[in-house]
Amino acid sequence: TLMAAQMTNAHRRFLQVLMSNGITEGSQARKLHQHCCETDKVYYAHDKLDDFISTINSHLQPLFMQIRKGISEDDGRAHYAVVNLAETEVTKMASDYTEIELELFRKTMDLIILSENGFASSTDILNLADQLKTKKMKKKEAEQVLKVFVEDKWLSEKNGEYTLHTRCIIEMEQYILSNYQDVARKCNICHSLAIQSQVCESCGIGMHLPCVRKYFRAQTEPRCPKCNEFWSCDIP
């Protein structure tokens, strides 16, 4: 087998920043790549970020870790996060949150994933707070906990509506696909997990909103990429 490429200080520095950020947007990752290479005086090629990351991943493999690329469901931009492959969502978050906070998160996740549009309203989430099995939570407390989940980039909030943050989707893709098998689907275009998506009424495939936009821009009329039936949702 080929020997894995040497991990340089530039690779180590890149990995450290990624881990401390939790998640890094694509353009930031490209700047960081350049900065790490130039600081370490190693060869830098602007179009070689994926190769640079593969080298790091080959060294992370024995540690059951990986840098993964995901797409923001909001604007379709690439993001990178370090994922621990040996842990499920619950163990990953268990060190940072109490049992009752985790229960609220799981129930919020249920609402979001089972919803039509990939969002749950703060009213619906706060109504769950006094139905928790661990112990009841006051609405004020629940509001604080939701705020922390947003700050820690597990949830995103817009006008009182919550959805899963890109970081959460990248890190928990496998967990969500195996725990919500009946409803969780991958985007037919980019093949990553789609929480906010449009669904074909005929064959049931789903597509991220940015992927819908991009795909239908090139089509004369919107037809499903799988069954070719007319796409009945409004193109965003």
How far apart are the first and last residues' alpha carbons, in Å? Answer: 47 Å
What would the principal axes of the Cα set say about the shape?
globular
In the CATH hierarchy, what is the superfamily of the largest domain? Winged helix-like DNA-binding domain superfamily/Winged helix DNA-binding domain
Beta content: 15-25%
Helices, by number, come to: 9
The chain-level mean pLDDT equals 90
Q: For this structure, what is the CATH class of the largest domain?
A: Mainly Alpha
Number of strands: 10
Give the biggest sheet: 3 strands, antiparallel
Structure overview:
Pfam families: SMC_Nse1, zf-RING-like. It is a single chain. This protein has 236 residues and is an alpha+beta fold. The chain has nine helices and ten strands. It has a three-stranded antiparallel β-sheet with strand order 1-3-2. A three-stranded antiparallel β-sheet has the order 4-6-5. Strands 7-8 form a two-stranded antiparallel sheet. It is globular and about 55 Å long. It starts with 8 loop residues before the first helix and ends in a 19-residue tail after the last helix.
